[in-house]
């Protein structure tokens, strides 16, 4: 089937994507930073399915670590068929209080890492049969979200990176993005915050990490003419005012 590289694969959306691709027959190169123990358990699960799984650890806010990760993955996997940039940083800070360090780290993880990892892995992607790059974006990249200015700026950058690379890397490498809505609440959300979010979702319910995983699989296997698109996987939230 091929090989897939996934960042932030240790928990939540990333682990669901890894499981879906592994069950579909892909060998896996999996990255994590703080979730290494979870990543090791996931690797054991996927190896039991007969998949070849390689693990990588790196702090994606560190440019040198990003460069080293890209070089290691490219060397170990001369051909890649799927690259999923799932790792992301998310924090609520009033605009007046955002420091340069917080801003730099946010853009480093959410924009710079996908940019330079894809650049480093381009030879491997070009060697793939029908390669696709998938970015995980957010409604905050296209609509302003109060108290998340640096996060919204980073996701807006990722949306444009999706479109820019889709144009420049065509016709062989496709680049798309998935913009999940409420599929995995942040851990700090209490029940009141969760209900407030769900009231803004026309479908009236939370999605699942498996919904994201299935969409990644669709982009990898069923959409050879789809590139440069941001798929809103949000239960209709982005369709209303």
Automatic annotation (TrEMBL):
InterPro entries: NAD(P)-bd_dom_sf, Sc_DH/Rdtase_CS, SDR_fam. Keywords: Oxidoreductase. It holds the Pfam family adh_short_C2. SUPFAM superfamilies: NAD(P)-binding Rossmann-fold domains (SSF51735). Gene3D superfamilies: NAD(P)-binding Rossmann-like Domain (3.40.50.720). Belongs to the short-chain dehydrogenases/reductases (SDR) family. This is SDR family oxidoreductase. It comes from Corallococcus praedator.
């Amino acid at each position: 089937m091929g090989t897939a590289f996934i960042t932030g694969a240790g928990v939540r959306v990333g682990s669901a994507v890894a499981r879906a691709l592994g069950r579909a027959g892909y060998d896996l190169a999996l990255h994590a930073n703080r979730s290494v123990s979870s990543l090791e358990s996931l690797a054991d699960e996927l190896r039991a399915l007969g998949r070849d799984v390689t693990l990588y650890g790196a702090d994606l806010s560190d440019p040198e670590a990003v460069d080293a990760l890209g070089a290691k993955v490219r060397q170990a996997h001369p051909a890649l068929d799927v690259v999923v940039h799932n790792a992301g940083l998310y924090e609520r800070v009033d605009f007046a209080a955002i420091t340069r360090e917080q801003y730099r780290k946010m853009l480093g993880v959410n924009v710079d890492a996908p940019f330079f990892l894809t650049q480093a892995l381009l030879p491997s992607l070009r060697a793939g049969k029908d390669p696709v790059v998938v970015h995980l974006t957010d409604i905050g990249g296209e609509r302003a979200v109060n108290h998340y200015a640096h996060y919204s700026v980073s996701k807006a950058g990722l949306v444009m990176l999706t479109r820019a690379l889709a144009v420049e890397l065509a016709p062989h490498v496709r680049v798309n993005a998935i913009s999940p809505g409420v599929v995995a609440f942040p851990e700090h959300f209490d029940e009141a915050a969760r209900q407030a979010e769900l009231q803004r979702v026309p479908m009236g319910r939370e999605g699942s990490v498996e919904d994201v995983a299935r969409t990644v699989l669709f982009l990898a296997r069923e959409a050879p003419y789809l590139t440069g698109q941001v798929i809103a996987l949000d239960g209709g939230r982005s369709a209303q005012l």
